[in-house]
Amino acid sequence: MAPWALLSPGVLVRTGHTVLTWGITLVLFLHDTALRQWEEQGELFLPLTFLLLVLASLLLYLAVSLMDPGYVNVQPQPQEEIKEEQTAMVPQAIPLRHCRHCLVLPLRARHCRECRRCVRRFDHHCPWMENCVGERNHPLFVAYLALQLVVLLWGLYLAWSGLHFSQPWGLWLRSSGLLFATFLLLSLFSLAASLLLASHLYLVASNTTTWEFISSHRIAYLRQRSSNPFDRGLTRNLTHFFCGWPSGSWETLWAEGEDEEEEGRSQAV
Q1: Where do the TM regions start and end (predicted)?
Q2: Residues with active-site annotation
Q3: Is residue 50 part of a domain?
């Protein structure tokens, strides 16, 4: 591996996240917080649980940031085979989507300029992970947000427990300034994680993506429809997202939604 590869954005971002995570954890242990008091009293269950949650959130972060988000396979194949496969899969009412970089583009996929690949069920490119969030890693991304929010809120409580305002201002700033800065940082991260988790749970419940929600007026298969063609109801949406069931192509779901609308119109007439 070339030395300059160690300075790539992905390595720098993941290293920064790891250092920041353990740095904040160390600050909470070194100051007079509830975490340190539990440790001094010999009550090790809660400190160990906190450390395990921090470790689990970090491992989940690395898993989401390093795994394949669902890249579209661009293995060279004869043009006739690609055309026949896509024609059989996509109903004739739906025009084939093309990417100038990755040939035929499946429904709900999008080309990411940062990753330079097309990603299935593209949600967004996350700069904090330096990876796309797509069909394969989106469930783990939501799980990471939930676990990270638990760790942040617990860390916020621990930081607050160590802030004692009875000392003179100058002495307090020298003894608790770093802890107070950590408290402000954890507050900011907790707010961001809460908003992200709430928005993604809403999108998952309606079976849509961030890209589709924001750019529906620019997406060919959505801009002429009044409702989301992929919404199968709350239970089926959640089951499909977290468990991968029922399986099936997005083109099929789109066509089923199209048939249901046509049937509804005929019954209304």
Answers
A1: 12-32, 44-64, 141-165, 177-203
A2: 126
A3: yes
